[in-house]
């Protein structure tokens, strides 16, 4: 009995300890409260000349989410921090879903996403403010060994739904077609599914969770076909034309080539302080004309059309 | 005298408290993890209204479709198949190696093989996966003219991964067989092989089984190494050379892109709960085997 009661005492003690920890750490200061944190250098003192808006270096900004957008945000954050000393911008991956849910819960300042918040179940899209920072095109990718350069949309749909299983049916060599998919929850897959396959359900293929792996598999497997964002294409894989239209920036800007997506950076409510300055920096000509293009994205400013969450396209 | 016993007394008390706090912490962590996963995982059935039998037996997995389908049977089957395949390959090899190290060539075994195998235990699973992806998958692709990503690749990578675990645990079990038994067997005129087969292996059987089950538990829960080489297709495999999915790969592929609290996310938690239940089952088997383990 004595032992048992001691045990209980120990348990309650530990429990109380844990509860204490819990309540302390449960509130990781979201953007609004972080002014209380000690900021390293004095604000205002480090205002650099070059085009940066009013920043106060006290608020660290966290941008979490889409791995497709991550390289662009990382590069831009580096440039931004070089210009505005003392400002902290942390960029993390985790996927579009993570980005959206983190920004909605206030755990991250900016949520990066390949898809509209309205398209994701369970996100209070009304509370989030959309900042479209770039456009990315996507294309069907095959190994250079496949002797096909162009597919009609119907052929593409037939391939991905499993109706066509050999390249010779679409004018190529006698080679088995192997599908390489991204997971059902992936933003790239959602875009390709909607705009290239007209929402037809893909047949089961092998599934890989990163664009890098998909590219590796397509380049190594004869007859493999998958889809990649244009920023992922290199010499090891070949992009197919769709209905004779190549996925060039010009064709995407006019929606002649329809498989593209916005890269979104969501904030909860209007952006303020450093987050606002950072978003303005990404949308500045300096970044749009240089970093965005260099990394394989299209400047948002070049787009001649606009598309809403339902996929309706209007001329700008 | 008095001060010394007083000091001993306080030392005793502090020691006891520290130990008890540690034990208590462990109990709380285990209970809260179980509670958390169970509450998340069960909400698929009680909040989202998916029937448990559909979840466990249906073949179609499409949580974002219209209507959403939550059949995880292909994942479950995949997990069991790779685990079984890995155990089938690794168990004879591991136990064979253990016999070699203890009965046939003990000097070399103890000095060289054992440390090497202990090193193997420490290799991170992602390394096994990467090696599998780079060497094994292209090899299978060229040998059999298939995709390469397959049940076979997954089973082989896992077999390699659990082989050291099985070998080292089986070695300990075989070493624990009293020397008297061997001597008695040899004195009765049994050959060395007869002794190994009938006496040593027989009396260390529960220990060897423990080794295999431990390896299977590790294989069942492995995510990264498997995910890299099995192709992750949610379809029933027709042969050893077809790609498959496992519960773990299903979770890791989708968790980053689903939103907390949605049915999709909850379904992933249910898969996690299933993994947890399975690991409890493995542990129960181990405890049952442990009871029989005493050699008489």
Automatic annotation (TrEMBL), chain A:
Q: Where this protein primarily resides, as one coarse class?
A: membrane
Stretches with biased composition (Low complexity): 46-58
As for membrane topology, the entry says: Lipid-anchor
Signal peptide boundaries: 1-26
The residues covered by the PBP domain are: 53-286
The source's superkingdom equals Bacteria
- Complex and partners: The complex is composed of two ATP-binding proteins (PstB), two transmembrane proteins (PstC and PstA) and a solute-binding protein (PstS).
> What is this protein's function per UniProt?
Involved in the system for phosphate transport across the cytoplasmic membrane.
Would the keyword Cell membrane turn up in this protein's UniProt record? yes
Keyword Signal in annotation: yes
Query: In which residue ranges is the amino acid composition biased (Polar residues)?
Result: 24-39
What is the scientific name of the source organism?
Answer: Brevibacillus brevis
- Which Pfam families does its entry note? PBP_like_2
Name by which UniProt lists this protein? Phosphate-binding protein
* Entry keyword set: Cell membrane, Lipoprotein, Membrane, Palmitate, Phosphate transport, Signal, Transport
Q: Where is this region: Disordered?
A: 24-62
By sequence similarity, the record places it as follows: Belongs to the PstS family.
Q: Where in the cell is it found?
A: Cell membrane
PANTHER family hit by this protein = PERIPLASMIC PHOSPHATE BINDING COMPONENT OF PHOSPHATE ABC TRANSPORTER (PTHR30570), PHOSPHATE-BINDING PROTEIN PSTS 1 (PTHR30570:SF4)
Automatic annotation (TrEMBL), chain B:
Membrane-spanning ranges: 20-38, 72-105, 117-140, 146-174, 195-217, 267-289
Family membership: Belongs to the binding-protein-dependent transport system permease family. CysTW subfamily.
Transmembrane is among the record's keywords: yes
Task: Pinpoint the ABC transmembrane type-1 domain residues.
Answer: 76-286
Q: What does this protein do?
A: Part of the binding-protein-dependent transport system for phosphate; probably responsible for the translocation of the substrate across the membrane.
Give the gene that encodes this protein. Answer: pstC
- Main location, first listed in the record: membrane
**Record's subcellular location:** Cell membrane
Q: Which Gene3D superfamilies match?
A: MetI-like (1.10.3720.10)
- Membrane topology field: Multi-pass membrane protein
Q: Which InterPro entries match?
A: MetI-like, MetI-like_sf, Phosphate_PstC, Phosphate_Transport_Permease
Q: What is this protein called?
A: Phosphate transport system permease protein
Q: Which Pfam families match?
A: BPD_transp_1
Sorted alphabetically, the keyword list is: Cell membrane, Membrane, Phosphate transport, Transmembrane, Transmembrane helix, Transport
